[in-house]
Recover the amino acids of this structure.
């Protein structure tokens, strides 16, 4: 890859990487039948100068959340609220995924990461409130998000 392409990729990343950014990236997954898969993640860091990105991962698999038991730990996004979500989507706040920013930049440069807008201030505020009151998110992450 040319140095110009790398520079443009880094510029693209740096301009879009901010709190509330919606990114789609090729991530390692827990499924034993798959090494990686594309998922949407929401940048949660209040300070995006950190070396580690804190991400909330989305899912369209609602079965686990159908009982309503986890409403305090998720944010439901309806179809049409954001152009990138064409199915009812859940932003899970039950587990924060940490990723090295350098890895995300590399994925971006290699076109395995793309940005798809930003959450609204309202949704970002709801997420922060849920994280403040979360019983499952570690304090070390809470301090870096809210």
């Amino acid at each position: 890859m040319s140095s110009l392409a790398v520079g443009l990729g880094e510029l693209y990343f740096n301009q879009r990487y901010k709190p509330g950014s919606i990114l789609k990236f090729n991530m390692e997954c827990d499924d034993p039948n798959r090494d990686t898969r594309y998922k949407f993640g929401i940048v949660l860091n209040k300070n995006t100068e950190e070396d580690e990105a804190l991400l909330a991962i989305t899912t369209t698999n609602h079965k686990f959340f159908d009982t309503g038991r986890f409403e305090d730990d998720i944010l439901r996004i309806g179809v049409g609220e954001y152009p990138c979500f064409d199915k009812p989507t859940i932003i899970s706040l039950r587990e924060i995924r940490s990723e090295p920013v350098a890895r995300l930049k590399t994925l971006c440069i290699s076109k395995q990461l793309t940005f798809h807008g930003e959450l609204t201030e309202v949704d970002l505020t709801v997420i922060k409130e849920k994280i403040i009151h979360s019983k499952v998110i570690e304090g070390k992450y809470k301090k870096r998000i809210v």
Remarks:
- The CA atoms of residues 52 and 103 lie 9 Å apart.
- DSSP finds four helices and seven strands in the chain.
- The longest strand covers residues 21-28.
- The beta strands are 21-28, 36-43, 52-59, 74-77, 89-92, 97-100, 113-118.
